[in-house]
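Lab notebook page, bench 4
Experiment: in silico fold of construct C2
Operator: M.H.
Input chain length: 199 residues
Purpose: comparison with the prior construct
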Amino acid sequence: MTLDRIRATATEYIKENKLSILTLGKTPDPKNPGEYLEQKRPALLNWKTLQNKPIENPEDLFTGELVNSKLPIYGLGVITGAVNGNLEVLDIDTKNDLKGWIWEDLKTQIENTLPHLLEQFLIVQTVSGGYHIYFRCETIEGNLKLAHNESGEAILETRGEGGYVVAPPTPNYKSIQGSYSSIPDITPEERETLFSICR
């Protein structure tokens, strides 16, 4: 993934889709001096300022005063919460699904209960093979854990007020359905039904 592609996508997200986003930085590898690890860490000194006031000039995410110059930029994140029109993301962590059926079962349950919604969601596949389901709702909360495996590791959780999710074109993240320009609005009742399915 080239920095030029990341810059171009940041411009698209901010200018065309009116999203509040952040850049992600590689962190030093403690086992290999001079090498870096690709982690979900913001490449900004204080990304939380973007929860209240989005950056209007995409270049400020790369050369602005917020940028942590010690962290090479390798990807983008989308901030969840009110700043992005009450954006909330359902995070399905399939690597913690010890039985291997949660994603297909969840899709089936949503299709059977909220059939008109499943095809509207923006869905992104993550680096670990999990999924992010994007939606907006007039009622959202902070990050929630909805379901976990036998070891207590989260399988289904949300990113809401105060959170963010890694997004394409970060390496190995890809949109598989929908777009950032057409994230659906769901009702509080639909949101509660969705969360009840997850729980």
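Observations: The mean pLDDT is 93. The two ends are 36 Å apart (CA to CA).
Next step: discuss at group meeting.
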